[in-house]
Design goal:
Layout lengths: L1 E5 L2 E3 L5 E8 L8 E6 L6 E6 L6 E3 L7 E6 L4 E6 L8 E7 L14 E5 L2
Parallel strand pairs: 2-10
Antiparallel strand pairs: 1-3, 3-8, 4-5, 4-9, 5-6, 7-8, 9-10
């Protein structure tokens, strides 16, 4: 399994970013995918998930209404659109394989850093 996240960066409060996650080595189109994040000095936080066909999505309370998850099964890619970013969204963002997050077991990439600062 290979997962590669990209798209992070430095943005001002209120700004937007689009994260991408390209995955391979498993049946992507049959697999739920998720995003988690790890703020500096804190533990992992589940952010969002999307069903294998993209018909069902879920979000944490902290990001609902601001973030949008989507996927392109033809490109083995999951996206996370981050809008109206706030300083508390600063974190390393990881894309995970499957519908259950485990910091020990869930396959994920190296992460992409999102920093929100004025």
């Amino acid at each position: 399994v290979r997962v590669v996240e990209s798209g992070g960066g430095l943005v001002q409060p209120g700004g937007s970013l689009r994260l991408s996650c390209v995955a391979s080595g498993f049946s992507f189109r049959d697999t739920t995918m998720l995003w988690v994040r790890r703020p500096p000095g804190k533990g992992f936080e589940w952010v969002s998930a999307i069903s294998s066909d993209g018909s069902e999505t879920d979000y944490s309370v902290a990001v609902k209404g601001r973030f949008t998850i989507s996927r392109d099964n033809a490109e083995n890619t999951v996206y996370l659109q981050l809008n109206n970013l706030q300083t508390e969204d600063t974190a390393m963002y990881y894309c995970g394989v499957g519908d259950t997050w485990s910091s020990q077991e869930t396959a994920r990439g190296q992460g992409t850093q999102v920093t929100v600062s004025s």
